[in-house]
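Pasting as-is:
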Amino acid sequence: MKEAHFKDNFWNTEITSTGGYDSIIQHLNDGKKTCKEIEDFIKARAAIEEKYGKDLLNLSKRVCGQSEVNSLKRSLDVFKLQVENVGVAHMHLAQTLREEVKKMEEFRERQKDARKKVGPSQTRSGPPH
């Protein structure tokens, strides 16, 4: 079976074929759906990163080796500080991911507005008259 390519939708012997137009509309609709799926995926990732970061920050505040002295005490303090730093890094990552999602949402809204400006005659699944 021959693999179908996007470009093949535009070469047809039938003069009234709308295959190319239909293909473009389908790709636009699929792109809109994919964009939303990516937004949702990144939002979920941000929530996971935030929860993990908070859990690490809480863990870093626990008492650990309080009765120790000298080098073991210093090692445990550094260890807890590193856990705190990793927690903060995950919190920053969660915030960065949320900012990226916001940019994607704004892009999607601009695309929606652009589609409205084109008008409904260009968004139906048939050729324009």
